[in-house]
Design a protein that fits this description.
Blueprint: E1 9-20, E2 23-35, H1 51-59, E3 66-71, E4 74-75, H2 81-91, E5 92-95, H3 107-118, H4 123-136, H5 152-163, E6 170-173, H6 182-187
Parallel strand pairs: 5-6
Antiparallel strand pairs: 1-2, 1-3, 3-4
């Protein structure tokens, strides 16, 4: 990789300190992490241990106070906000714990949005791709509904389809089944 990293994802000496009214709160301290292509990695820890903060570093949603975040050929910690959004749209699929679906867009529009933003598929192919992804998560019959008309488990499956929209090389999920019952979690 062009930044000297030997792994698909490398975090080097990551520290994240949040400023609060009571002073600084250290969420991550000196974290080194290496993840290679093809690996499936789970990060576990108690509530407040920094799991989401770590994921947000990899995804470029948050920036480290110090250290380097290298993903493929990209030094994520050095990207501008605009470049970060474009990179994230092409390089990552993110499944958030609380879905993050746009409430005024239909299900199919929510899935097509990443494709529209990054122009990864020709305009005429986006709807077909979205419908294929909806079929994959068993939600094709709900394509033209608004997210508010769906259950939490259904919305989570839509969020997974959206994360896959641009066929990203990396999929990141932050407790994607944490708010679901066990039967729905197993299905997801």
């Amino acid at each position: 990789y062009q930044h000297g990293n030997d792994h698909l994802i490398e975090l080097r000496g990551i520290t994240k300190v949040y400023k609060t009214a009571a002073g600084g709160y250290t969420a991550l301290k000196g974290i080194d992490l290496e993840i290679d292509r093809g690996q499936f990695v789970g990060i576990i820890g108690k509530s407040g241990s920094g799991k989401s903060t770590l994921i947000n570093m990899i995804a470029g949603i948050d920036r480290p106070t110090s250290g380097e975040v290298l993903v493929g050929d990209q030094a994520v910690h050095l990207l501008s906000e605009n470049d970060m959004a474009r990179w994230r749209g092409r390089s990552l699929g993110i499944v958030f714990q609380f879905f993050q679906l746009l409430p005024t867009l239909s299900v199919i529009e929510n899935i097509m949005l990443p494709m529209d933003f990054c122009k990864t598929y020709p305009l005429r192919e986006r709807k077909k791709r979205a419908l294929e992804l909806l079929e994959l998560v068993e939600m094709k019959d709900h394509a033209y509904k608004l997210p508010s008309a769906l259950s939490g488990g259904q919305q989570q499956r839509i969020a997974i389809a959206r994360a896959l929209a641009n066929d990203p090389p990396i999929l990141i999920a932050d407790e994607p089944t944490g708010n679901l019952d066990s039967k729905t979690a197993d299905s997801v």
